[in-house]
Structure formats: structure tokens, C-alpha cells
Amino acid sequence: MKTQGRWLGMVFSLVLIQVAWVEQAASESLSFNLRNDAARLEFMAPLGSGDLAYTASLLHHEDDGDYATLGLELVQKMDKHSYVGLGLALMAFDVEEGDGAGLGVGGFVRYAFPTMPALAFGGQLYYSPDVIAFDDVDRIWEAALRLELRVMDQADVYVGYRRVNVDFEPQGEANIDEGGHLGFRFYF
After folding, report:
1. Helix, strand or coil for residue 93?
2. Domain ranges of the chain
3. What is the model's pTM?
4. pLDDT 10s per residue in the chain (188 long)?
5. Residue 96 CB: number of other CB atoms within 10 A?
6. Which residues does 131 contact at the CB level (< 8 Å), separation at least 6?
7. CB atoms within 10 A of CB 166
8. Could you tell me the CATH superfamily of domain 6-187?
């Protein structure tokens, strides 16, 4: 039985439900970044009044496939412009060689420089090893770095680098996305 797109379709549906819920729950941030052959949309919203947050993202690469995440993070503000988050993310992909999913463990950080709070460094890393990956997936990992500039009270622009990689049997390894991108983030 062919399962192409099964995992991605399931996560995509969950992301759409998440986005609909976020619209009613006063979202925290919306980010969009792109390069010539890839685009990514990301949401982050608080869950209640505590330190928990939902995260959701969709990445489309016109040649190498699609990738979606849905996460639950514990987020702590370090100061007005800096924060760190740790948590879990359901990571799903659909590439030419196949599809799959895994539960990623990782986190993200945004650090604004104290002497120049408009300038910040950010990054994220998530990893799903074989033991918490589904089907024939051996591992999934995502890493990203970015340099951000606050251009308005509620908006950043950034330049970054991202790599999303999967390894599964028997097809082998596939890069879903790798390279630099430009983006913006709105805070609500």
C-alpha cells in the first residue's frame, strides 16, 4: 500500500487546526522566510497564561519536497527581547523518495544584544532519532541560524541559514532544504 504523503497530510491538517485556533487565541508571532526555491511559514502562540507555547510550521521546496512541524514548547523570557524554548515537535516530510515522520526533541533561542536590543541572534535545533521516528525513518533533523533586526515595535527582518535532513530505509538520505533565506517576523 502506497503511503506517499500520509504523514505530511496528517501533520498539515493538524497545523491548519492549530492556525485556526491561534487566530482566536491572540497569536504570539508569525514568521515567513523564502529563497529562490523554498518558502516557510511559522506560527508560535501561547497556550493559556503560562510558559507553554504551540509552534507550527510548513516548508515547501519546489524540487526537494515538503516538511511540516507541530510542537509544544516550554518558553522562558530572558529579558524583554530575548527568550529560549525547549520541547517536542512532530516532524513530517514528503519527498520524492518517500514520506515519514518522527518526534523531534530540541529547542530555539533568540538573544538580543544588551547594548543594541534591535539586533538579535537566533537559532533552532530539533532531532528525531530512530527510536522515536515512525515507519522506516532512521532520523530527521533540522538546524537553523539567523541574524535579526527589529525594524518596528512589532516586526523583525532577518537573514538566516537552514538545513532540514532526513535519513530512511531503504531510500537513504535526503536534504529537504539547505541554504540561506530572507524573512520577516510579526509579533501580535
Report:
1. strand
2. 6-187
3. 0.85
4. 344 455 566 565 655 555 545 444 445 899 999 999 999 999 999 888 789 998 999 999 999 889 999 999 999 999 888 999 999 999 999 888 888 899 999 999 999 999 999 999 999 999 999 999 988 899 999 999 999 999 999 999 999 999 999 998 777 888 999 999 999 999 98
5. 11
6. none
7. 29
8. OMPT-like (2.40.128.90)
Which H or E element spans position 15? helix 6-24
Please answer whether residues 87 and 72 qualify as being in contact, where contact means their C-beta atoms are separated by less than 8 angstroms.
yes
Q: What are the grid coordinates assigned to 43, written together?
A: 506560527
Report the alpha-carbon distance of residue 186 to residue 30 in Å, rounded: 5
Residue 61: partners with Cβ closer than 8 Å, 6 or more residues away = 37, 38, 67, 176, 177
